Amino acid sequence: MVTAVARRLAERRRRLDAVLAPFRLSPHALRQVKGKMRRELERGLRRDMQGTATVKMLPTYVCGTPDGTERGKFLALDLGGTNFRVLLVKIRSGRRKSVRMYNKIFAIPLEIMQGTGEELFDHIVQCIAEFLEYMGIKGARLPLGFTFSFPCRQASIDKGTLVGWTKGFKATDCEGEDVVDMLREAIKRRNEFDLDIVAVVNDTVGTMMTCGYEDPKCEIGLIAGTGSNVCYMEDMKNIEAVEGNEGKMCINTEWGGFGDNGCIDDIRTEYDREVDEGSLNPGKQRYEKMTSGMYLGEIVRQIVIDLTTQGLLFRGQISESLRKRGIFETKFLSQIESDRLALLQVRRILQQLGLDGTCEDSIVVKEVCGAVSTRAARLCGAGLAALLDKRREDQGMQRLEVTVGVDGTLYKLHPHFSRVLRETVQELAPQCDVTFMLSEDGSGKGAALITAVAKRLRQYLYAMRLSDETLLDVMARFRREMKNGLSRDFNPTATVKMLPTFVRSIPDGSEKGDFIALDLGGSYFRILRVKVSHEKRQTVQMETEIYNTPEDIMHGSGTRLFDHVAECLGDFMEKQQIKDKKLPVGFTFSFPCRQSKLDEGILITWTKRFKASGVEGADVVRLLSRAIKKRGDYDADIMAVVNDTVGTMMTCGFDDQRCEVGLIIGTGTNACYMEELRHIELVEGDEGRMCVNTEWGAFGDDGSLEDIRTEFDREIDRGSLNPGKQLFEKMVSGLYMGELVRLILVKMAKEGLLFEGRITPELLTKGKFETKHVSAIEKSKEGLSKAKEILTRLGVEPSHEDCVAVQHVCTIVSFRSANLVAATLGAILCQLRDNKGVGRLRTTVGVDGSLYKMHPQYARRLHKTTRRLVPDSDVRFLLSESGSGKGAAMVTAVAYRLAEQHPGQSHRVVLGESPKEREAGGEEGETPHLGGFQGGDLPSDRRVTLAMLG
Ligand code: G6P
Ligand code: G6P
Ligand code: BGC
Ligand code: BGC
């Protein structure tokens, strides 16, 4: 008898062990899991794996942990865990830093979790409304941080596209949508209050930040709750999907999806498969389904059903309760496994769940629970060990000391989970000293801290971010300005002057001779000798000298300025030993000039750094000629005055005959392009084209850009040499960009948002932060170390977060500039397209200017936005390698020929082909300035056609 009982017990033991054996993972099996997880973590970071990796490694755009300067009053939502909460979070900064929170838990009924997206978000907004009412704060438009505990692809801190629902959620029409937009729309639908949604945050990230507020070493956030996930601070250089190499960004690993490619199928049991098949997302989140609270009870239930079927439990009777999915919630699992409970109490819990069994049954169920939860903790430990070792190795450390912030019901409530997890980590990552820090306040606090950081930056920078919609609007406005400038009636009052240049063609290859070019108005004053020879093919030889133009000369009398120019020219000719020659001179003068012929330029107004008296309203050719004559030591014949945009178009036109736009993004900004003569009402004639210098720098001088100008733009203007003028230029060009950044930094520092509120005299000095610094800081590799260097020179001791923030400010300011130029350039491109009457424009834009050339990202951004704003165009951007001087010489060459051929008639010179000649010459249908010339070789038989008008 005794032996029969003993045999029965032994048999029962054997069968139970057989069922539970696959749950008892060996150290070897765990190490294998660790290795596989490590591989998946690395794969997820790779750009080429973005679509296919199962561990998604999502960038979160959270670039630092809290530094104690966060402050303000915020609303937080916390959706996706056991409870849905709405919170009000008040954060104080400084020495008495503190966080106060008020929260309310709301239920989300199952039919809403699995209804439509609209219903879900309407419900959320309904809960917010109740909370605001309850707190008596309905009127305030508070900033909101949204903890949304599901995988989201983010392109910025305030955008999150749901990759796929997990856990118990399955609302329709949400996957692939931006959940921030959905929330915003629901708020709009309700039309009762408004909120400023600043950040969307995963619960792991919220947890890391909550713990990071107390312990700066906290760089990992772990959730072991309803779901399972981890986030951590990764080096930017390892995140291929995000531009930039400096600093860190938090990565939401979404490790719950580990194994979805089958890589851990060897350790999955039939019960795991059963649970997966019965879940809302079969085949997905396989690792999560073995490790998190939502599923552990389900695994237990599957095993219990099997054991009951085998007659090992509940007298072989499968009760109604046992058939119910979800009866074993995490909290029951935790209770059953508690050592403090007597068997009888376990039995009572089971009875409450409708599972009426003996004490023996209770022992077995408890053992099953233990096996399942231990496996979960060990698997979770293996995953964490993989991440810890990766971080240790990435940083080249012998030992890694790190804090892991943890939250989640499983970790908090289960009696053994946290211990087993810690032991496993120790076992598998022995070179890591890990402190586990329990998050006491949930993710909402962390989300509020993130919101505080994002909000303070956004406050200043929001207005600088221009949507495509706004840019298209700016483009349309500029197109109207162009029309006004071209019209005879509106030109006198137009802000964008659209100045005729009397240049009617780009070089055609027949130019030759020996010329001097002056190039005044950009960063450098240059004098060049340009020799264009014409053997078999056209070649250009250039010699350049750069001369200083001291500020007192730029700001003194006009006479002194031109005496200085004449003196430099004398020096140059001396050096070239050509003082006895009277070489033709082309004058690149990079300021707005009204011209009625090629060799006359009446300065409308000084711009940029210049403000010499008595020049505005005068002809700069005459002023310079007079200064040269006064010297009497050499003679020069100024044949053409050319804007730098025109010089650039001509320089680039020499290499690419399709070039019909000249663009400058340097000290100042401007563009010229070939316009149909019939549209230029200020110049007689209807046929052919003429280059128009738009002088777009003045765009906005009539108030038409006020809606997009910021307080910083206004401050720049007030402190400039020409207040109220060149307002577009002041938002865009290199003379102002560094100063714009400086003003923003000062404001942020004053509010304690940067440099711990320290402001130094250097930081307060106008001009101390230069545009070249913006370029250096935005370099992808060494940008942040440059930021540190530059800021240190300004006397502040920047933290890493400061450097990241400053880099961000630089990016926003320079991005805005490129976007604005794309909009105005887009208007010109549309005009060209419409002029030609083609569906798709093919053209080349010649570009020059220090900002465009030196800034590491500018050109690419400009090209990209331009193509987006004018999609029906193929635009080639051609960098002018040799400055405007060469182009000016080209213009001069033709003017010179003209003067030689028609002595004494140099007034009203027009460069290019006249309609009459074209008719006579019979080149029907050809555009005036171009033939079939391709590439660099110029056929020597090209005709140059010049005309005298009037
Ligand atoms: C956090 C939160 C939750 C989150 C949870 C995970 O701190 O504030 O919203 O999702 O912990 O735990 P749970 O067990 O509730 O899923
Ligand atoms: C050109 C020139 C300059 C001109 C400049 C714009 O090609 O030759 O004189 O004004 O580029 O650039 P910057 O950055 O010098 O203002
Ligand atoms: C989600 C994660 C989340 C985790 C813990 C998972 O199901 O995919 O985004 O962090 O649960 O709540
Ligand atoms: C001037 C333009 C010039 C541009 C680029 C502006 O300030 O008004 O004539 O083309 O700067 O140098």
Automatic annotation (TrEMBL):
Pfam families: Hexokinase_1 (PF00349), Hexokinase_2 (PF03727)
Gene symbol of the encoding locus: LOC112950201
Single GO BP term: glucose metabolic process
The keyword Flavoprotein is annotated on this UniProt entry: no
Main localization category: cytoplasm
Pathway info: Carbohydrate degradation; glycolysis; D-glyceraldehyde 3-phosphate and glycerone phosphate from D-glucose: step 1/4; Carbohydrate metabolism; hexose metabolism
InterPro entries in alphabetical order: ATPase_NBD, Hexokinase, Hexokinase_BS, Hexokinase_C, Hexokinase_N
Keywords: ATP-binding, Cytoplasm, Glycolysis, Kinase, Membrane, Mitochondrion, Nucleotide-binding, Repeat, Transferase
Span of the signal peptide: none
Domain Hexokinase C-terminal: 219-453, 661-894
Domain Hexokinase N-terminal span(s) in chain numbering: 16-213, 457-653
Xref: PANTHER family: HEXOKINASE, HEXOKINASE HKDC1
Topology in membrane: Peripheral membrane protein
Highest taxon, organism lineage: Eukaryota
Molecular function terms from GO: ATP binding; D-glucose binding; fructokinase activity; glucokinase activity
UniProt protein name: hexokinase
Entry keyword annotation includes tRNA-binding: no
Sequence segments annotated as region (Disordered): 904-941
Reaction catalyzed: a D-hexose + ATP = a D-hexose 6-phosphate + ADP + H(+); D-glucose + ATP = D-glucose 6-phosphate + ADP + H(+)
